[in-house]
Write a structure and sequence with these properties.
globular; mainly alpha; 3-stranded antiparallel sheet
Length: about 150
């Protein structure tokens, strides 16, 4: 028999964040997966290119915190679907510049509309104040709000 301790997994912040992220992403995942056959990393790459324009895989990895092999697979799939074009960097032959095609931009616009609707549904149970607090807190944890890394103080 295990000894009872004071640790409560249901109150452990990393556990709660992971559960919330999984639950929150499932509904949107059903849309981009059924409509475009995309996996999570593919839509994340598509959205980074849609939001920021032409980027390298390294740029996307740095921003999205996705491992380079996963980005490479996502780019290959998006290229097969003609959503992304690659252009070799003439100064650094190991690097490619990635950009959305017209078809990729159309998919991005469609997914943006669906993402906005999904975001509204997901946030609906919260008051305006709760939504703002939640977004600020999550951005702080993600190192987005202040530019600081999570767990560090400025």
């Amino acid at each position: 028999m295990m000894e009872k301790d004071d640790f409560d997994l249901q109150d452990f912040l990393p556990y709660l964040l992971n559960r919330a992220a999984e639950e929150a992403s499932l509904g949107f995942q059903q849309y981009y997966k059924s409509r475009y056959g995309m996996l999570r990393n593919e839509w994340r790459v598509l959205f980074h290119l849609g939001c920021y324009g032409r980027m390298t895989a390294k740029d996307i990895g740095d921003r999205a915190k996705i491992h380079k092999t996963k980005i490479s697979r996502a780019v290959a799939k998006l290229s097969e679907r003609r959503f992304v074009v690659r252009q070799r960097d003439m100064q650094d032959r190991r690097s490619e510049h990635l950009e959305l095609t017209a078809q990729g931009k159309a998919a991005y616009r469609d997914l943006c509309q669906q993402a906005a609707l999904y975001d509204q549904r997901l946030a609906a149970p919260f008051s305006t104040e709760e939504r703002e607090i939640l977004r600020v807190a999550l951005k702080k944890l993600a190192g987005i709000a202040t530019g600081a890394e999570p767990g560090t103080s400025q």
